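DM from R.C. (forwarded with permission)

"hey, sorry to bug you on a friday — could you get me a structure for this? deadline for the figure draft is monday and I only need the backbone to look sensible"
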Amino acid sequence: AVWRRLAPHSRLDLGAAHRRLGVFALLAAAVQLVAVSLPGVPLYGGVKLFLPAFPFVALLAGLAFAEVADEVRRATLAARRHGALVTVVAAALLLPGALGVVVYRGAWLSYYNELAGGLRGATAAGFERQYYDLAYPELAELVATTLPDGGAVAVLPNPKEYAPYLERWRALGRLPRGVRLAPVDEADLVLLTHERRWRDYPLLVARFRDRPIVATRAVNDVPLYTLYDLRGAQSPMQTR
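My reply, with the result:
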């Protein structure tokens, strides 16, 4: 509807209206990015600080594709094969993102590209492997299966961000009522999220290294979380 208002008399107007829309999107994205890049802006939030610019970046990408599609149409109009070629071009442009979804299976850090070496390269360079406050829905089933009669779960090294999900899942009936949060010394299970920014993370990895693993979620062999069994009994290991 917006495009029809901007270019009501043509099927694909790549003229003045197109340029005005592109300039507007570029300026809007730049304002958003500059605002969160100024000295003194808190670092907390990471990628979330840039989310307001994403719609304008998407708009610029759409306008760029419109340019490519128009060039294909002009070059192949006589052969009347431009529709198929536009489809091929669109598929080629969408392929990297589609492969990322398939390879990373919905993981939240698929934005690490080849320049960073993917998730392995980013982790080796010291970049974070996950956001704050992620929800891993499969954890509810894993905890419920491992502790069907209830028990204590410790969440480390960041209980403030991740522990509330256990409370919500219990309230929704996805966890047995007997499942509760507890300090690690009282826990049956411990959920360790692999976040190296926490000072005690290396000590926690060493502490639980020999404990039975209930499950771990890894992307390209880089772990995002590990659920350890502290009860002493062996548990089957699952890798997602």
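R.C.: lifesaver. Confidence is low (pLDDT under 50) at residues 1-12, 233-237.
me: no worries. DSSP finds eight helices and six strands in the chain.
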